[in-house]
Amino acid sequence: MKRHLSLLLILSALSCSDDAPTSTPDMSQPDMQQDTGEPDSAGDMADMGEPVDPFNPGLNFTPSQEGVSPDGIAPAGPLGQGEAGVGRLTSEPGFTGIWAHCRVGDFKLHNALIEVCIQSETTNRNEVFTGGLIVDAREVGSEADDIFDMLAPRIGFNVLYAEEVEVVRDGSDGGPAVLRVTGRDFPIAYLLGVLGGRFLDTLGLEVVTEYRLWPDRRDVEIVTWIQNPNPVLKNVAPGDWLAVGDRSSIFYSSTGSEFTGSRRFDWLATWGPGSSFGWTMGESTAILSLPVSDIPYTIFDPGQITLQSGEEHVLRRWFAVGDGSVESVRQTLLERLEVDAPTRTATILLEPPLAGKTVELWQDETPVTLGVTDETGAVVFELAPGTYSAKVQGSIGEGSVETDVDLTEDVTINLEPPRELTINVTDPAGPGIALVRIAGGPENQAHEAFTMPEGLNGVLRLEVVPGTYSVQVTRGMEYEIFQSSVEVSADTTVDVELVQSVPTPGWIASDFHQHMEPSTDSRIHVRDRILDNIAEGVEFAAATDHDVVTDLRPILNELGLEDYFSTVPGMEISPTISHVNVYPAIQDRSLRGNGTIELAYIENDEVQIRGIPEIFAAARAMPNDPVVQLNHPRGSSSLFETADYEPDQDPRTFTHEQWSTDFDTLEIVNRVGSTCALVADWSTFLNTGLKKTGLGNSDSHSLNGDPAGSPRNYLPIDVQMPGEIQVDDVTAALKAGRAIVASHAFMTLGDVLPGDTLTGGSHTFDVRVQTPSWSSATRLNVIVNGQVVQEFESDGSGQFDFDQAVDLELTQDSWVIFFAVGPRPQGTPYGNPTLAFSNPVYIDVDANGWTAPGETGTLPVVDVSAINNPAFCD
């Protein structure tokens, strides 16, 4: 995958050690000296002869407060002005939402303005082995869900391995509250696991970090000491790994809301629902990697340093917490940069008063700040008087509006008054949730959003400027696509009646591979992923984020949509050698990755790396007997490519250190171009008696052009409502091979189900293939024991693309797959080719038990090349 390439690219830039790396880092590095409140060496620190002011320790270790417990004072309520505190949590932390990682036993650093959670020696993050990092932060009194991801001190490509987390000063004397983390540098667990232990190793450096919070400050001061106890020099690139979370947007002091040009900046701020954050070193620094890449971290890189044996380096920076606006943290960051300029409070008002619009200010081609208008259309800034260039987010169809404003006084900016465009969707088979795409207006802007239930219909209201718009409404492959052109000059309503042209009674549509915001390479809000599934007609899905267990059920219940969709927690274990899905999974938010199968873990002080056989074994050891799914077996990060497996080899006797066939299902369709090769691989598995269920999954990471359920799997489970689906029925159907794979086409085999075993040699199969009007299946292939034995053609017209009686005369035990294919739909948002295929039906000719055709003797020759017509495989 691209994200693995990104890891390798920045790895070379961050490589710091002069020693040859090993595959399993050495855990036996010397411990950091126990601190006595005095620095271990002179380095960049204050003169040893000078006493350190505990209220202003600067680059020195903070002197310990007499009588303070290492656990501090357990937070018991809000603090007042002039107070700061820190203590180990003995009750629920209060951070909520899918991004919350704070636990009982972690530490809360807080004052009257902000509260920050720093983990104890253990962690529930899958990226690291230990705690000692910031995982949650918010304003005091905020009721919004936590949106912050993590901040971890970094040392080269490593992070601080926390051996001890203790309170140094608890703030009870009116001074700062200080938490100290003592440990060493150590590779990031996630990267060790993903890369299989390659390239990464400890540098053997001793590391201490202090988190300091003063009363009535919005920022935490972070000071890190890095010491080299080794007999040889070490080249080190210190800094931070900052992941602000997918719900935040970033504003850079050098480039504004878009990261272009220079990689250097003085400060950055993020803003999102209910919380904002800021970071600065008090001077210009650089960004080594961007959150817009496949790695969701901003890696701050003040530059590489050389540490001779015994030398020490000190790094100080500040992390600010605000109310969701850039302005609430910007002034704090400017203070740390010692920017002292006269300011005034200036208000910009939009007319008409539009809420939720961004206003970005620049001066002399330099970005200054960004704000979001409130319910009155106003946004307030604290700025030096003068003239600024304002870039204002307009309504749909208008784009952004740029104008100069003189902020020596309050200013009103006039915008085109929007009209309300209402999309009213009627769906006899559901709650009216559909995906609406519109495009047009003076700036030909595109926008997409979901309708939401209101009464018996689904409704979406949009603010658009006058103009002509195309409106497209989709509800997945079972429905016709609504398309219309609308002229908007006044408030306008478009009524849409959805038509289900491909009914699937007795079957449920399912998707067992999809991603959302907990994955490192997806930004889809968990709420939107639920709506996406319902809007695409997916009735059951497993949440399979990379190396973390995600459970959508609490969010589904909050939305009140549990009747229309069912889901289970799952995970995708994602080393570069292959990816594996496991579902249902058991979520435990106290454990690393919420209970994921850890790729890299520490046992008896040694790092252990799981390969594919070990991942399968860990899944089999789970108490709930989950489905183990081999993902995209060909292409990058695939088992068959890693092991150099080819379909003329017997998978039962094939050997490779990563080879195992201990999985239940495998994806035949994910990366569409690999489908033909995977049908050949699958055929050999079936020929040798390895009954593996073939699936088609979306592996969706985004929404537009990459929806859930494209492709999908139909399982023969009969329920009135999707909320009635039982998980045990789903797993039983999957393990029994009772699946039809579908991409814009639905197939049935009459009274026969995939996975059935039929006796006798003569059989007639009633094969029906149906598509919506915007798709067509033009060829039907019959595959027996890995050979295409019959072909049928269709022009795709009529109620069914195929309604075909297929006669087979077989003289030996066999398996049969029906495979229909057609061209890629044109003029639709669905890019995959049309296809549908069954899992095998087994034919026991002599009724004495089914025997695989290649179970003994020579393997049958496999040739399924005929299914690539029309061509869609590489």
TrEMBL record:
Keyword vocabulary terms for this entry: Signal
Matching entries from SUPFAM superfamilies are given as: PHP domain-like
Official protein name in the record: Uncharacterized protein
- Enumerate composition-biased segments (Polar residues): 20-36
| Source superkingdom | Bacteria
* Secretion signal span: 1-20
**Gene3D superfamilies reported for this sequence:** Metal-dependent hydrolases (3.20.20.140)
Q: Where is this region: Disordered?
A: 18-87
